[in-house]
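Margin note from the TA: students keep mixing up input and output lines. Inputs are the sequences; the output is the structure of the whole complex. Example:
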Amino acid sequence: MATTTKTKTKVEDDHTPIDIDIPDNYVAYTLKTQKALPPVSWANIHKEINWLSFTILTVTPLMGIVGAIFTKLRWETFAFAVFYYFVTGLGITAGYHRLWAHRCYNASKPLEYALAMAGAGAVEGSIKWWSRGHRAHHRYTDTELDPYNAHRGFFYSHIGWMLVKPRRKPGVADVSDLSKNEIVRWQHRNYLTLIILMGFVVPTVVPWLLWGDARGGYVYAGLLRLCFVHHSTFCVNSLAHWLGEAPFDDKHTPKDHLITALVTVGEGYHNFHHQFPMDYRNAIKWYQYDPTKWFIWTMKQLGLARQLKVFPDNEIHKGQLTMQLKKLRETQEMLAWPSDSNDLPVISWDSFQEQSQKRPLVLISGFIHDLSNFIEEHPGGPHLLIKMIGKDATTAFFGGVYDHSNAAHNLLAMKRVGVLAGGMPHGLDDKAIPPSQRLKIARYNELSSPYNSSAGQSDGEGMFY
Ligand SMILES: [Zn+2]
Ligand SMILES: [Zn+2]
């Protein structure tokens, strides 16, 4: 690790990607060799607190709440606070996140400056620091090298990771492209001035100049709006890895949920986002709530953004299909299926005749079925079954007397007790394989096996005797 740290200092200056010489076993090696700080407990917490973030994240809401108790809220100030929440929120979502951390599109200089300023108003660190952590989050999702590892619990991934000193250094993630970006560098250099200006001065001065409410502006559009923006962004790391569905992939924790989208200016389709991080969209359906996408799209119409990246639809649908098949497979595994010819005893014609004297056995499609307990329930009446005991009823079952429903065929297959020796010619798969088994979900390693009940029956080989 010592060499990696040294390399980092060296290369960050000359804009070479930091991970260019990364070892092949980087993750395992780092987790094994890099020392992590001890777990935080009541005994050591006083030494482990990250005082700067701790103060920002606790004093701001306290001052906001106390301020709100003693400050009348005017509707103009309220409307402006909500508006400014979206301005600074978009600075993070459309700027920090989708533009800089993920390069989902290219922005014109004026738009980049505007987003860099708006993002500073959210007081979440500089673009460079934020994007570096976020790229590590995507690269090492759900591991100890992910700075806000969701496996450490909701609280830790939401805010805990900033309240204490990082337990380990986030995994290596290259930001050399950002080091070369003049606007990112400008923001980094002037960060303190920009957070004071955009975080507090602008939200105080605008309501003061327009309707004479400087104090309300400071409390509501400054302090409280900042708390909302903070927790809105933090929800992307906590709520979006905890609540909802995984329609694209379930390998990791990210999830899709409308509630998360509503509280994060549209970053709630996080399962999609982790699968297709360079897509400028988080929500792919027009009716899903993704104002960040709408904003970027509008900027494109205004000529301020271009090259909006979109992942190929075909690949997106593959992910969705895989997840749908997984669910269907679970349902398939919950159901009882008929025995196939490999599991059933092979019975001679004579033995079939003999056993039919003792119980109602009927031959259909080469399978011998035991119809005990069913004769009285047969919708067509018991007499039609009784006269077929000990006989081949294939023709009668498949349309000769009544063309049975698929459900009837499925039920019939559940009553199989044997296979007639030499009793079935080839080429009658549709009669031997019940409708419920003609289309099934098979895992790739089951496809060639003659012993599975899903796809191995397709050619009929090994099935009939
Ligand atoms: Zn995430
Ligand atoms: Zn992301």
